[in-house]
Write a structure and sequence with these properties.
two-stranded antiparallel ribbon, alpha/beta, six-stranded mixed β-sheet, globular, about 150 residues
């Protein structure tokens, strides 16, 4: 599905076990995967490394806020942000998209949807247009099977 043309993916999650699994998946498709475990490291890493894509757990902030998402978007406006979450409520997806996420993937759908969501937000040719449980910018009001359009 994806070539290793992406030079760097930034992966941010406080849960080390899940991060290792996601890193393994990402390493099958991308050249470099850099892992961080907190919002300050995410913001610094995104600013310094200028990755092509950041894959970030929605609950990265201990206070549950989305200020980190707004900060990353402001500092790195061209960065493609894919948010992971266990929460499948429409309001959660809408809040993430409104704060600056390009795509939203449910953690239970990582194996089937993550690489596809990354391809779609990057505008990769041949990427499929639908995911099971996520969405992308512009799809905040649609149901679970949303058309992925990217930013």
């Amino acid at each position: 599905m994806l070539g290793k043309s992406v030079t760097c993916v930034l992966l941010a999650d406080r849960h080390h076990g899940l991060t290792e699994c996601v890193r393994g998946l990402l390493e099958t498709a991308f050249g470099t995967v850099v892992m961080v475990a907190d919002e300050a490291s995410l913001i610094e890493g995104a600013s310094r490394l200028r990755p092509d894509v950041a894959v970030v757990d929605l609950s990265l902030a201990r206070d549950g806020g989305l200020e980190w998402l707004v900060a990353v978007r402001q500092r790195c406006p061209g960065l493609k942000l894919v948010v992971l979450s266990v929460h499948d409520e429409q309001s959660v997806r809408q809040a993430a998209m409104h704060a600056g996420a390009d795509a939203f993937v449910l953690k239970r759908e990582i194996a089937t949807d993550l690489l596809q969501a990354i391809a779609l937000v990057r505008g990769d040719p041949g990427a499929e247009g639908r995911t099971k449980g996520g969405g992308t910018k512009g799809d905040e009001t649609r149901g679970p099977a949303v058309k992925v359009t990217g930013r």
